[in-house]
Amino acid sequence: MSRRSFMNLVGAAALSSGTLAAGAGGFRVRTITAGVELGGRDDLPRLDQAAAFLERGKALFGEQWEVQTTRIATQPLAQYLPDWRQPQAMAKLVELDNWAQARNNMLSVGPVLTGTENAQGFGEWAAELVTRTANTSFSCFAAAPGAGPQPETINASAEAIVAIAANTPGGEGNFRFCATANCPSGTPFFPAAWHSGEPAFTIGLESPLVLLAALQDAESPIGMDQRLRAALNRSLAPVDALARQLASDTGWHYRGIDTSPAPGLQSSIGAVIERVSGVPFGAPGTLQACAKITAVLKDLDVMTSGYCGLMLPVLEDTVLAQRADEGRYSVQELLLYSSVCGTGLDVVPVPGDSSVSTIAAIITDMAALSVRYTKPLSVRLFPVPGKAAGERVEFNNPHLTACNVMPLG
Description:
This is DUF711 family protein. Helix content is 41%, strand content 18%. It contains twelve helices and eleven strands. The protein has helices at residues 3-18, 44-62, 87-102, 122-132, 151-167, 208-214, 224-250, 269-277, 286-297, 318-325, 331-338, 356-373, and strands at 28-35, 67-73, 106-113, 136-143, 177-181, 200-206, 253-261, 344-351, 377-384, 392-393, 403-404.
């Protein structure tokens, strides 16, 4: 198949079912994320204030776009719950999760291990938190912002991934945990999100269809970056303006939009990358296409915050899942693409018997890459209990697609 024929096929297939589903402007608001610093374990009034702000923000943005979720992120857990390891602290976290569920908010309790805590027994603790809550996410610093890789935290994160997988159906509990490196506060996307400073908010979007539409009639790679930049600036300008209005009306600080085009099952970033490269994802040319799109995401006219790079979540993107099934790329190649674009390794299905040491080595590679290039990255792996590399896995989660388990070797 010629490059031109392949590009036309990708564009037609992706747009046929997804354009109308994306809502006004060709995108959804994936999240409005409010960040607050809690004064202690019982600081529900501050959370109530955040919930009220999000309700107002959702109503305002909902007049023009679909708002998929509202979320609250806090500072690192130990700063407001210093006894987080104790049974009574776990009960408090369950109480906070119940509070979030009642208000239809997602809650990030911030990074739990930041590099200074005793990491012993963290895996068991993490599995208990996931099994006893429904709306709570959390993370660990594999490399704190401005610091190098932290071996104890990396190993504890790997233990958590293995323990969570073993204690949740299909290993899906790992949807709410990740190890991060150089991820700053103000990232709207979970589970990496955390907060510092005055109450503030950020916006995250599901916007691959905006990019795909911009390239629909492109005959060659020449000028694609200008098309993408113009389309994103047009689409994001009203979001940015409305966010500034919300900040002015409420007194909440607006930190910006994470321009990362978060994909969905009807809104594939893999299709966009293939449109730019003219080849299936994973073939030679993929790295350059990722770099070109990321350069656009980091050079827009709106206020920005967070990753501002390509997300490549295998289980949330039908094109990426299909190319994984075809064996066109590996876990290590996903990490390679992150060197020029991405957010790291995201919802990647791996064998259920993956060892702590192997997962720790992968997190270490991610942290080393992040430190070398001073960029935010994260690892969110899905060991699937009872499944080996190459075996098919399906999930009950409506946001996850079926995919073959990817080998780690």
